[in-house]
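Every protein is a chain of amino acids, and every chain bends into a shape of its own. Below is the pair of lines this work produces for a single protein:
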Amino acid sequence: MAHPNPYYEPNWKTFHRRRHAKLERARSDLRRLSEARDYGSEDYAAAKAEHRRRHEAFMLTYKMQHPTVQEYAAWVFWEFPVGMEAYGEAVPVPEVDFAAFRSIEEVDAAWARIDRAVTEAACEKQASLPIGQPKGLRVFSAPASLKLLRYWKHFEPSDLYPGGFARGPGVRTLITADQQEDGWHVCFMHDWNSPGMGVTNAIERLATALYREAAAGRWPPAKRRWSAWLAHRLVRPKPAVAPYPGRFHFYQHIPPKPEGGRETFDRVLLRFWQGEYRDPEWFGYKIIPEVIQSARLDCAVENSPLGRQVALLP
């Protein structure tokens, strides 16, 4: 069913021509004051406001051309393809049901939403590492392994600085851990929405906090379902003494940022001294295991609140 366009004006070309002329005069006035560098004057502020009003009035003439909302939607999505930055990238574009639109505002909102989603997906794909198993890296290779553990964790300031120098909101990270013969391989994923400092700046604190949990018998965290409990009993030894620090191997994953920033996956070598991991050295990989890259997507449904641990099993 087609819905009428309340902005429709059969004589829209006249409005278009007149408003374009007024916009050009406003643009000329603003350009003249800009060239004179008269930015702080009342004349410049008035000219800028006038230009904004004229521009909005002119853009409204495009909505006057179409008798129905559906015709306007077809014109918008044809004349202004969503995700212009996505060209050259195989990014799927959602199908749009023009018949579902009931107003011009719904069309504009849908176009902006889809354009943003497609653009962000394209940027993320361009900034992502290729998926594969890095040469010489045997861990994080089996998504269905019972020895694989993934969960969100919010490290409180007191976890990172138990000596009393705690500051800030702490660090929220997605942990992916893989138990192998040589110990636990633990990857901390940076959370761009975390209010605290990034994983890179906190890597020594995070590694030390996790080791302290293990030494106190609180790590790995308990899992909930029967299969999880069974796996937990099978793969987790109960140490009589604190685990050897050298049996923990650490990694860092920085996902691509929608507004810019390439994805990275690094092995982080740390020296254990006086009860803490120190002196980090980063060694970057050019490809990333699927287990690591997809972990944030697999765990997105959990989106656990800060401070809550959620173990995810294959």
Summary: Confidence is low (pLDDT under 50) at residues 224-230, 300-314. The beta strands are 148-155, 171-180, 183-190, 248-254, 264-273, 276-284.
